[in-house]
Each structure stands twice: as structure tokens, then as C-alpha cells.
Predict the structure.
Amino acid sequence: MRNSCGGELGGRIGVAISARNFFRQRFSRWLLRRLPPSATVTLDRRSLFIFPSATGFAFLLLIVLCWLAATNYENNLVFGITCLLTALFVVSILHSFANLSGLTLSCLKVTPGFAGKTLTVELLLRQPRRRYRDGLSCSFAGSEVVSAAMSNVAECRLRLTVPAGQRGLHDPGRLRIESIYPVGLLRAWSYVDLAIRALVYPRPLFSEAPPPGRRASGEGVLQGAEGGDDFVGLDRYRPGDSPKHVAWKHYAREQGLHTKHYGDVLDRRLWLDWAQFPGLDREARLSRLCGLLLQIAATGQPYGLRLPGLVIEPASGDEHRQRLLAALALFEVNAPEGQS
């Protein structure tokens, strides 16, 4: 009996969840047709929605009760109060609509972030003529609500923080702007898609030390340790030096006894190489490379990036840093995890 009741309850919950998902998908498709993505959106009667708030429903109930009392007792004073409350509710509809109507929204800038952190979205609110707007609230799904007011100004800027998802191009979804101005009886709102796409970098994992320089030749190099193949210079002979390294030609010219020194030439430029982390999956490698990139960028040394199918030559500077971070963020972003 208990199993039967539990199964029946679980079935009802499943049906309820399926129905909710069905209506949510239908609403999303309808909203997409009515409010398609656009970089700039101006709120008008097609994009605004108005519905009574909880206070508004209580106010409507009060109007109905006053009307019933006035009708039952034929009280003209209560009739007058009922008409006054009804007029206040109707006027609130007009003011609630006017508080958002004509407002133009656009995205100024999106500051990229790292996976698991937050992104910063800067919005611009403009109005065709200067007027007073109050009680404006903006938010994305999962973000904090930011309130604003426009007091005789042409434009207003807002900064919103949005949770960053997985690395790649992140869509924060539709922006929700709403207002309960002037008296809180009605809520006017809209869901606009500003076609925002933000870069999300891999979550950085830091190593103890950056990778060493590589053996190379040419300009801008450093001399390495003893034991290499390239001639470094001469030094005075010291007891114990290998006879193989004694400069016998200089000794024959009576220029004294000297020892030749050899070493490797190390390139000062550093490379972030995909092959540095064998055995790790794609996301783990990218996180390690991202951590090394941030470490090396802080030193000011030139550094480059080697990924499968992509090589970015060493350089330095903030622009180069952003370019490499973008390459890490977009590397095989749509490929299955098993591929690399």
C-alpha cells in the first residue's frame, strides 16, 4: 500500500514537472517571437507587461468589499470611496506603464571573467526626453538586483555582476527590468535579450614556477650553464680544469694558460605549451596553461602559446595577454571532453 501511494505521488510530481517544463518552453518560444535578440531595445507597448502585485490584489479585494458594503447598505460615502480607490488603481496603470515606456536599453561593455567567478555587464539606459523615472530594477537570472532612478537625466549607467558558467562564450540570458512605481499596486516589467556574449576564461590552476626558457640561438638570449655546445669565453686556468678545455693555441702564443668555457644559449622568451602537461584532460590542461599565463604575464617577459593547430608567437603587454586568454577560452569549446 505504501509503495502504491509513493508511486502515485511520484507520478503526479513527474506530471507536474513535465507540465511546467512544457509551458516554460512554450513561453520562451512566444517571448522569442515577440522580443527577438537585439543590441538595442526600446521599451514600448509590445515589449512591456503589467500585472497587479500582491499589494495590488489586496487593493482590488478592498475595492470589491467596499462596493459590496456600499451596495448592501446604500451608503453614498462608501460609494464615493470605492470610486476614488478605483480611479487610483486605473491611474496607477498609466503611471506604471509610463515609467518604463520609451526607455532604451543597450549593453556598453562586458568584462570577461574566469570560470566559476563572475562577469561584469555595463548597461546604458537612455530616455528621449528628460523626465523623472523611479524604482527601476534590473537583473539577470542568478544575479543580484540593481536599482536605479533617472531624475531629469538623459542616460544612466548600471553595472551588473553575472555568474560565469563554463569557459567559452557565455550568454547571461534575458535582462529583466521591472518597476512597481508609483504606489506599488502594479508591476510593470519586460524581458529583453540584448544579444550579450561574454568570454569566460578557463579556471586558472597555478603551478609553483613558470616553465624555463628553451634552448635557441639569435638575439635576445641568455647564457646557460656549463656543459653545452656553444663557446662562451676564456677564463684563467685553475688547477683541476679539464685539459680538454685548455686553450693550447693561446698558450703557444705565450698569451698565458686559459680555459675555454661552453654553455647552452637559452631563449628568454617563454612558451606555454600544450605538451607540458601530458596525461591531463583538455580542461585540466587549459586551467594549468591559464594559471601559468597569469604568472608569466606579471613578470613582463615575452611569452607565446602552443596549442594543437594554433601557435601564437611570443610577445608581451595587456593586448597580448587578452589574446592568449581568448584563445584558451575558445579552444575546442564545442568538442566532447574525450577529444583533444
